[in-house]
Amino acid sequence: MKIEKLSNKHKEAIWQFLMNHAYSSMFLLNNIDKIGLNYTGELYSGEYWAAFDEKGEVKGVIAHFWNGNLMVQAPEQNVLTALTTYFLKNANRPIAGMVGDGEQTLYVLDQLGLPAEAYNTNRSEGLYQLALEDLQLPEKALAEQFKLIPTSAANSQLLFDWLKAYELEAFGGEPSEEHDEHIRNRVSQMQEGDFAWVLLNDGDPVSLSGFNATLPEIVQVGPVWTPPEHRNNGYARITVALTLNAARASGAQKSVLFTDHPAAAKAYEAIGFKENGSFHIALLKDTVEMSKEPVSA
């Protein structure tokens, strides 16, 4: 097995490998699609390494992104072990966290050997899949009182308040000016892009849904947020269903999402999602410089 740092010349082979594991590789695919395999330090860019067998076929990929997060796709344990060991010996930037396939991510985190208190969040969620031809629109979704608007047409302060509340609830941590700046950047990206929408109920904004990774054929749902005062009315279910219906009309064929919230899971299952796997999210309180040798927990 040979491990090699990647560049754009490897894109076709890496893309084909990741598409064979698309449901748990959407962030990787999305980032490669947007900016390629060369690291620039810009949004979406990362450093990538791959393991190749003796025939030159890709067996696994590990990536370290501009924001410090790690991602891996290496279904075979010996490949995962080799990539993790190689990365930890050659890491040259701080690590901020890791997201990806549940079992694979847990293995890498174990090798990092960081204490539980180092994380803001460190949890596994159910990975849910849906063929969009099987999407079931809620009965109320097409009622005249509901209207879906793009975030570009929504109030910026509302989006800031909602996204801040969403991240603090979903990922932990404490309010800070640094976090506020992060949220302001997210709002700008959301309003400039074409990947998030707000549901209006008789003109009042009640819920938010978007896609945090997109390909022409597959969309990954997130974030989804309904303020506490509007919960238990089915708004999130309606918002997600309407956004997926629009994606289907634009040619998307599949969707994926992850959640560990029972009420959210029930809502997603009601529109057709089925659990098939796990997805792990681990975000550190502070970035960590890694030693050059892996550490067992």
Give me some keywords for this one.
297 residues, alpha+beta, Aminopeptidase, 12-stranded mixed β-sheet, 12 strands, 34% helix, 32% strand, globular, disordered C terminus, transferase, GNAT_dom
CATH topology title of the largest domain: Aminopeptidase
The counted number of beta strands is 12
**% residues in beta strands:** 25-35%
Cα gyration radius (Å): 19 Å
> What is the name of the CATH superfamily of the largest domain?
Gcn5-related N-acetyltransferase (GNAT)
Oligomer: single chain
Classified by CATH, the class of the largest domain is Alpha Beta
Helical proportion? 25-40%
- Domains (count): 2
Shape: globular
Q: Would you tell me the structural class of the helices and strands?
A: alpha+beta
Strand order of the largest sheet: 1-2-3-4-5-12-6-11-10-9-8-7
C-alpha termini separation: 26 Å
Largest sheet: 12 strands, mixed
Number of helices: 8
Assigned CATH architecture of the largest domain = 3-Layer(aba) Sandwich
Order of helices and strands: EHHEEEHEHEEHHEEEHEHE
Which segments are poorly predicted (pLDDT under 50) over 5 or more consecutive residues? 292-297
Average pLDDT for all residues: 95
Organism: Pseudovibrio brasiliensis
Keywords: Acyltransferase, Transferase
InterPro entries: Acyl_CoA_acyltransferase, GNAT_dom
Pfam families: Acetyltransf_1
